[in-house]
Recover the amino acids of this structure.
């Protein structure tokens, strides 16, 4: 039987002996001790039992070895001539947490053991050592090292999904976007998200924030198209008391509220030329004055912008400033439409079905093959948002656990040519049509029917503007402008 005596005695080797415990699979071990004879003897024995061993006699040698290679286990004495072995324990745990540390000493006390464990040692053994005792300690230490590596791998896998939990896709275009998100998450540069309505621009913006070093800071979202120019300026930059009628106190703007975090400006193409000038300055200098104020404010805010319009075309037409476009178009992420990634439709349907079923407290088995085929064949002008609404509608209205073509809206089932969805017809009540058009422009003559269509759609979708815009197959900005022009932006209409 092998017995390791104290550091001043020789080590007898009996390679023919049978240990009570099986040795672990080959492990990479760094052996640190200032007793050359002991180190050589122990290293020889460990190599005979299939381990890879490097040796070191001093603290500097041990640190150099750790920097050059990966070790499953560090076995060290607490006394390295004039150096302190505790320093090596702390150094290893701090810089190489996947490497377990096993302490072997001839001067152990209860206080020493406690101190070693607090410093990060996995275990402490006293000399002289018995082979089975050392074998078991190595087994346990290496197992701990493997657990640490597995935990690190799991953390890495979870980190990859942080912020992307709700972005479901196995389409190669979206997978490339996930890689881009990782690359730009910590960049200070502005990010421009482009894509059709409902493609998930807001969700991607949140994912970039969640995967950045700013994740602990605020995420502030502003729908630029929903606010007139005067209100947008106050919303973004804040105002001081007395800046306008009703401004009874100072109010911080969204740039200030997002300080240390991320500001998401949706529908940036709707910004007026005057607002574009102000945005250009703040994106260049991250400085601004609140509305009505004279004191310059500075912020540390990461800005993400989004649009469903072709800004290049807007620049050529003079509707969008060229210098602002170049400022915000540093990193451009183009989100594909749902019809470009048809393979994701079953995955998304399954997710939305599960959510809707849980919300409604119902057991839904899913769509039959005919309905699923229709869902995959549809063009989805409202993209993922429209798909979610369709699935939710089917779950709410279905009387059975299985969903069929009868549970789909007419524009998908083909039972009607209506594109308004949600059971709306394409026939308007006659009283909504003008009796005559003499003396009216075409626009004026069409305002009555247009207002009635939009009003019906708003009521049907419980005044949810996003859902209404999808049902009418127009973008949200267009809807907001029409509502304002037709007098439908009065909140009191919701209660009529």
């Amino acid at each position: 039987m092998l017995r390791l005596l104290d550091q001043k005695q020789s080590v007898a080797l009996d390679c023919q002996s049978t240990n009570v415990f099986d040795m672990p699979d080959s492990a990479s071990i760094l052996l640190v001790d200032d007793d050359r004879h002991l180190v050589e003897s122990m290293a020889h024995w460990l190599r005979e039992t299939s381990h890879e061993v490097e040796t070191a006699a001093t603290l500097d040698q041990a640190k150099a070895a750790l920097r050059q290679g990966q070790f499953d286990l560090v076995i060290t004495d607490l006394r390295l001539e004039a150096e302190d072995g505790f320093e090596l324990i702390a150094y290893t745990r701090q810089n190489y947490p996947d490497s377990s540390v096993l302490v072997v000493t001839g001067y152990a006390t209860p206080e020493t053991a406690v101190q070693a464990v607090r410093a990060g040692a996995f275990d402490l053994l006293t000399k002289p050592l018995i082979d089975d005792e050392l074998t078991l300690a190595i087994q346990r230490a290496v197992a701990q090292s493997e657990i640490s590596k597995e935990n690190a791998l799991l953390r890495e896998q979870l980190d990859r999904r942080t912020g992307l939990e709700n972005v479901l896709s196995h389409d190669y275009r979206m997978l490339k976007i996930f890689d881009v998100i990782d690359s730009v998450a910590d960049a200070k540069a502005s990010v421009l998200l482009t894509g059709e309505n409902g493609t998930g621009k807001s969700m991607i913006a949140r994912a970039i924030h969640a995967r950045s070093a700013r994740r602990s800071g605020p995420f502030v979202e502003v729908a630029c198209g929903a606010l007139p120019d005067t209100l947008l300026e106050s919303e973004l930059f804040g105002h001081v008391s007395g800046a306008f009628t009703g401004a009874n106190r100072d109010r911080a703007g969204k740039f200030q509220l997002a300080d240390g975090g991320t500001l998401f400006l949706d529908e940036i193409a709707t910004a007026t030329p005057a607002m574009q000038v102000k945005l250009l300055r703040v994106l260049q200098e991250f400085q601004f004055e609140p509305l009505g104020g004279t004191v310059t404010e500075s912020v540390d805010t990461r800005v993400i912008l989004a649009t469903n319009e072709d800004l290049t075309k807007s620049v050529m037409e003079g509707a969008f400033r060229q210098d602002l476009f170049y400022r915000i178009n540093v990193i451009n992420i183009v989100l594909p439409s749902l019809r470009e990634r048809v393979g994701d439709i079953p995955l998304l349907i399954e997710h939305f079905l599960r959510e809707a079923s849980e919300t409604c407290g119902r057991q839904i088995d899913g769509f039959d093959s005919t309905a699923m085929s229709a869902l995959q064949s549809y063009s989805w002008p409202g993209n993922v948002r429209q798909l979610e609404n369709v699935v939710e509608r089917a779950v709410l209205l279905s009387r059975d656990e299985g969903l069929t073509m009868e549970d789909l809206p007419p524009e998908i089932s083909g039972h009607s040519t209506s594109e308004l969805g949600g059971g709306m017809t394409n026939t308007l009540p006659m009283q909504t049509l003008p009796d005559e058009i003499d003396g009216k422009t075409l626009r004026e003559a069409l305002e009555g029917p247009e207002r009635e269509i939009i009003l019906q759609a708003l009521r049907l979708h419980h005044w949810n503007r996003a859902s209404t815009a999808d049902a009418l197959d127009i973008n949200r900005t267009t809807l907001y402008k029409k509502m304002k022009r037709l007098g439908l932006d009065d909140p009191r209409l919701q209660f009529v």
